[in-house]
Write a structure and sequence with these properties.
This protein has 180 residues and is α/β, with parallel strands linked by helices. It is built from three helices and ten strands. The protein has a single domain, classed as Rossmann fold. It is globular, with a radius of gyration of 16 Å.
Length: 180
């Protein structure tokens, strides 16, 4: 069935916002010996790749959403704690999230990271839903509740991640999906 997609944020708008975010982070972390970047689930990989190439301070990158045999179930969220170091060595940690919907993933991951001796923890979100009570330290875009989006890493049934911009999808056209 055809899905009705409408552009929400173009590739250029996203690139401009990621550039501004990188400038803010470069100013804040320029004197750090190392900053740990923890990327949440699959949808954040494109955001993380674009952002990390613009950072001008040393980073160590971790992906917390990879599935292995040792996955912790925290607040209905699967976090691969083995993908993270035993200790962050009292260094800062930035958690990168593609979209904060309910805040469960961020809350659970923040708890896991805090137990691993992070000097500080800041949350960076590409997108946040308006109704979510979790306030990231940095957020590129805010969208209303009920809007379903794809592209720039975000998916619908593991499709559309490759789109260079972010698009809305009319979920009434996609009744067979488990997502909409």
């Amino acid at each position: 069935m055809q899905k009705l997609m409408q552009p929400l944020y173009s590739k250029q708008v996203i690139a401009n916002r990621v550039e501004r975010l990188a400038d803010e982070l470069n100013k804040k972390y320029k004197s750090e010996a190392n900053v740990n970047l923890v990327v949440t689930l699959n949808g954040a990989f494109i955001f993380a790749a674009d952002l990390i190439r613009k950072l001008q301070f040393p980073v160590t990158l971790y992906f917390a959403g990879s599935v292995t045999s040792k996955v912790e179930q925290v607040a209905d969220t699967r976090i691969n704690s083995n993908a993270l170091p035993a200790s962050f060595g009292n260094q800062p940690v930035l958690i990168l999230e593609d979209i904060i919907d309910s805040g469960k993933t961020i809350t659970a991951l923040r708890k896991v990271v805090a137990e691993k001796y992070a000097a500080s923890i800041e949350i960076i979100a590409l997108i946040k839903r308006q109704s979510c009570n979790i306030a990231p330290n940095y957020c590129c875009f805010t969208i209303p509740d009920g809007m379903f989006i794809v592209g720039y890493g975000l998916d619908l049934d593991n499709r559309y991640r490759e789109l260079p911009g972010i698009f809305t999808i009319d979920c009434t056209m996609n009744k067979g999906s488990n997502v909409c």
